[in-house]
Amino acid sequence: MFNCIQCEDNIFRNLIDGQWIISKNEEFIEITSPIDGSLIGKIPAMAKEEVDFAFESSKAAQLKWKSIPVSERAEILYKAADILLQYSDELTEIMIREIGKDKKSSKSEISRTADFMRFTADTAKNMSGESIPGDSFPGFNRNKISVVTREPLGVVLAISPFNYPVNLSASKIAPAIVAGNSVILKPATQGSLCGLYLARVFEEAGIPKGVLNTITGKGSEIGDYIVTHPGVNFINFTGSTEVGTKISRITSMVPLLMELGGKDAAIVLEDADLDLTASNIVAGGYSYSGQRCTAVKRILVVNKVADKLVEKVKEKMNNLKVGNPLEKDVDIVPLINSKAADFVCELIKDASDKGANLIVGGNREGNLIYPTLFDNVTLDMRLAWEEPFGPVLPIIRVRDKDEAIEIANKSEYGLQSAVFTENINDAFYIADKLDVGTVQVNNKTERGPDHFPFLGVKASGIGTQGIRYSIESMSRPKATVINLTR
């Protein structure tokens, strides 16, 4: 099934207007594995003219696609979900090699994506418009009725990140197309192979030509061009705050949906179940080496239980498995590239130089950073504020819940926070005051279930995701007013 996307010499093609094509300029970007540096594929570095053709194709296809009944659009998603699971083993292997994710997490991402597609199809079929009588507003009578339906926006530009290359591509594509839009997928360079395989899944499921196109290329050459292209009607982006901020600055009159960075805090009160708390901190902070926007990234613990918590976290960290995900099931894998590993090491060095107490880890082998825990991190340390996107956690000791809230809210980010306490009143007190999109009570910060609202505030994002919310974001109300004659 996947033969069409790849030709000789490990060169991959893009899906444009229903055809798998190689860039005419014959320039390619090499994709090497973060595990061992081996070459796993070459993707086209598309030129601006080819980008233009992708947009033209998407525009033309969307005009027809929006007239297709929702039930038929939904059927594409059901079929895509089935095909995705059918090729789960092959896609898992690609994901492990391309982004270094462990086998268990890779398989989970694929099955979760299939569930996402099915739930999206179900949700779309059960969404309905409304009719509004005129006499519900003062001064009007029943001779006016507004019939409100939802209309697609047009061409959606979906830009996905490396860390969930299947799920965070599909979570943009599925709501967009079921709402009647066409989609241009621009996957992260490291993650492009997974994105192209996903596009092939949708093609096999019967998506019409041009409704889903893919773009690969160098951000320095086409990045600004695609987000400012006159053919874009909506941008759905997941990635760094730096890039997201730039996109929001250079675009004009184009609606945005963005999930950006985070510095998610786990606030631990003195009555917390410390075994539960430690388990969630380790799972939330170190899975996939912390390369997740919703990873636990700092621990704000009241002094009274800090020593006990440190010991329990340290003990549970001993169970983390470190190594090569191609050889065994592991928790800690090499980071996506040497630049990412260098940055994490900078934060580790800064914390050490300024007096933080290194409890576990701190060492590096190539791009592999061993799970690291610091205690007594102070607010002058970079690790207290910057997002490492790696397996390092700071413990910041606080006097009480109000100091924890104050520190948490000083962050430029506002994605999620977690609160660990047995007191429901304290949980609601803290949740009410935290300036974040989601507060988890007695659980690690995480995305999902996927029909829950998912959003960030401040530098963590724009707009609300979650299946129904994403469909609504990528469509608009349209009112038709019926004026009745008497």
Automatic annotation (TrEMBL):
Assigned EC number: 1.2.1.9
Alphabetical UniProt keywords: NADP, Oxidoreductase
Keyword match Acyltransferase: no
Active site feature: E259
Pfam family, one: Aldedh
Keyword Hydrolase: no
Chain ranges of the Aldehyde dehydrogenase domain: 20-479
Molecular-function GO terms, alphabetical: glyceraldehyde-3-phosphate dehydrogenase (NADP+) (non-phosphorylating) activity; lactaldehyde dehydrogenase (NAD+) activity
Homology family: Belongs to the aldehyde dehydrogenase family.
Protein name listed in UniProt: NADP-dependent glyceraldehyde-3-phosphate dehydrogenase
Organism expressing this protein natively: Clostridium puniceum
